[in-house]
Amino acid sequence: MTHIAIVGGGPAGLMAADRLSRAGCTVTVHDRMPSMGRKLLMAGRGGLNLTHAEPWDRFTLRYGAAADRLRPTLDGFDRDALVQWSQDLGQPTFTGPSDRIFPVAMKASPLLRAWLGQLAARSVTFRTRSTFLGWDANGALRFRAADGSISLEAADAVVLAGGGASWARLGSDGSVAAVLAEDGIAIEPFTAANVGVDIPWTETFISRFAGQPLKGCAFTVGNQRVRGEAVITRYGLEGGAIYALGPALRTALARDATPRLWIDLRPDMKADALAARILETPAHQSLSNRLRKAVSLPPLTVPLLREHLSTLPATPAALATALKGVALTVTGRQSLDRAISSAGGVRWSEVDAHLMLTARPGVFCAGEMLDWEAPTGGYLLQATLATGVAAAEGVLAWLSPTGQGSP
Ligand SMILES: Cc1cc2nc3c(=O)[nH]c(=O)nc-3n(C[C@H](O)[C@H](O)[C@H](O)COP(=O)(O)OP(=O)(O)OC[C@H]3O[C@@H](n4cnc5c(N)ncnc54)[C@H](O)[C@@H]3O)c2cc1C
Measuring from atom 38 of ligand 1, which residue has the nearest CA? Predict the structure, then answer.
């Protein structure tokens, strides 16, 4: 019987195991951690955002430079397929605010439990605390067990799904990509994606406003503008809008040590309309009150303006202009270990259309260890699962009598 080794028991590796075990292959999944799917479980902590309901053509453009390469893979396992997959695991979904799709249970644990159960029922073998080290001279896979012993495994094909390099304590530490790099495979260095930015708030400001949201704003870096929400943290800002600006922030920080992040606090109103509303409020009231009454701006608005202006604007017109362009100084980004995902990984030039490494026939890559990135919103799991499917289908095609592998 055809034996497939899978490295990585995250969603990409498990999806490959799912497809390959359904096709009748014997499958062993190795993971360096004591249990499978640790990052998936963590992703479910704040609500497992499986995918997104926006129009598919727009959806598939969320993957930046990798969008063209990923498109056929995403079409091969699209949003409907993902929703059906979740449903088949006993986890119906719903579309929540901002068109994000979640399982009704919100958490990942029931889904993962059901999935692992189904895989075990199809005789998939799970090897935990089993760290992939590479290949021996005869092409067998080398694994290190928890006691340090080394074992060899021969496989007809291999799916590498070692994840990205964020939150290393959950398992994905970039070590699979490092093995490939030693093997001469081109790897784009991992860097933080979907991570907060550092802003040197004053102690007065942060002691009052840490944890508060900036809702319905537009955030701009360079020529990229994103509408959405961010949360004020002790170190700076985090949240969907900041994550979506990630690539622009990386470019800006590479060019300038302290680039500007502009916030338009009322993107739906032109400055003159804003000024007119402010003018209608009684001048004897405090500025905070006037802004709250005139345009529903929260109490943090005036202190936020003070963070970047030495004196507050005196006229409604100048105030309106300031509200539409709060300029904050960005001094850095949070570390890779605090990032929701990572950019970088196995370069697209190294894999064929079936995600097989051209330098290592029979070895396929899936999930976040490939060089793509996407904002939060369900795009990460959609591409992760779709590449798991594509790698499995690649394995089956390669092992078929007309393929080049030898089953
Ligand atoms: C806090 C947080 C919240 C998130 N929320 C969401 C969300 O709501 N929606 C969404 O779409 N995405 C979310 N994500 C991102 C999502 O979880 C990841 O994109 C996804 O898990 C990637 O799947 P993967 O299978 O490629 O890698 P991983 O899930 O990282 O799995 C890789 C596996 O490989 C194993 N491994 C690594 N190296 C080796 C080795 N050398 N030998 C053996 N095993 C190895 C690891 O232990 C790990 O289990 C979130 C991530 C985080 C951190």
Answer: 162
Tokens linked to 245:
């600006």
Six-digit token string for 110: 């029931």
Class at the top of the CATH hierarchy for domain 3-193+340-399: alpha beta
Instruction: Pick the residue whose CA is nearest to atom 46 on ligand 1.
Output: 171
CA pair distance 60, 63, nearest whole angstrom: 7
User: Which three-class secondary structure state does DSSP give residue 163?
Assistant: coil
Q: What is the pLDDT of residues 104-163, one digit of tens each?
A: 999 999 999 999 999 999 999 999 999 999 999 999 999 999 999 999 999 999 999 999
Across the strands, what pairs with 255?
none
- The pLDDT of residue 308 is 87
CA of 172 to the centre of ligand 1 (A): 6
Domain boundaries, the chain: 3-193+340-399, 197-333
What confidence tens digit (pLDDT) does each residue in 223-266 have?
A: 999 999 999 999 999 999 999 999 999 999 999 999 999 999 99
Helix (H, G, I), strand (E, B) or coil at 354: coil
Ligand 1: which atom is nearest the Cα of residue 49?
A: 8
Amino acid at 183: D
Distance CA 356, CA 295 (A): 55
Residue 202's CB is within 10 A of a number of other CB atoms, namely 10
Between the CA of 246 and the centroid of ligand 1 the distance, in Å, is 19
The rounded distance, in Å, linking the Cα atoms of 262 and 242 is 11
pLDDT digits (tens, 9 = 90+) for 338-349: 999 999 999 999
CB 93 within 8 A of CB 82: no
Question: Is 62 touching ligand 1 by the criterion CB < 6 Å?
Answer: no
| pLDDT in the model for residue 282 | 87
Residues 192-208 have pLDDT tens digits of 999 999 999 999 999 99
Paired tokens of 375: 């904002």
Closest CA to 372 of 382, 363, 364: 382
pTM over 0.70: yes
Residue nearest ligand 1's atom 8 by CA: 49
